[in-house]
């Protein structure tokens, strides 16, 4: 009887034997797979230490990993990492309805100051019916631990709360990616953070 490791290793080697790509490309794909397995375990372990729940795992050509972060029933944002990114992005998306855009624009310097002070980047995308704010904090892989995750989530929350205080009646309630308007899968570029 062969062990699970031997069986899995045999399947991987059989796939590589049939590969039409170069040895260098095969090694890079294996490196990325190993990194994803390792990073998923690290993120899952640290989230559990923090009392957080990860949901909605996604991966694709741009994303090595993506999870929604929850504490109890409350959405706290997301954690994402691109295949070539040197660290993790902790972020949130806030959608502002067209009727509240002017209020936000008039107070945008307050929001930007709070975000900058907390080490959170803010990107604004405008559409005809709404404006989406993407808030991101970055933690490099070597510095990713319980303390840095909690600090970044606190900083992110301070920025989201500032937006809520400026626009108390807006469409900035948080929903899961499959829900209504406000939260969706954050776009990931091929650039490193």
Model description:
The chain has 193 residues and is α+β, with helices and mostly antiparallel strands. It has a single domain (4-166), classed as Yope Regulator, Chain: A. The chain is 40% helix and 27% strand. It has five helices and six strands. A six-stranded antiparallel sheet has the order 1-2-3-4-6-5, with helices on one face. A hairpin with a 3-residue loop joins strand 5 (121-126) and strand 6 (130-140). It is elongated and about 65 Å long. Residues 170-185 and 188-193 have low confidence and may be disordered.
Shape designation: elongated
Q: Give the tally of structural domains.
A: 1
Please tell me the CATH architecture by its name. 2-Layer Sandwich
Number of helices: 5
Number of strands: 6
Topology:
Elements: H1 4-17, H2 23-49, E1 53-58, E2 63-71, E3 74-82, E4 87-97, H3 101-106, H4 108-117, E5 121-126, E6 130-140, H5 146-166
Antiparallel strand pairs: 1-2, 2-3, 3-4, 4-6, 5-6
Helix pairs in contact: 4-5
Task: Quickly list its features.
alpha+beta, 193 residues, Yope Regulator, Chain: A, 6 strands, 6-stranded antiparallel sheet, 5 helices, disordered C terminus
Please give a quick description of this structure.
This protein is 40% helix and 27% strand.
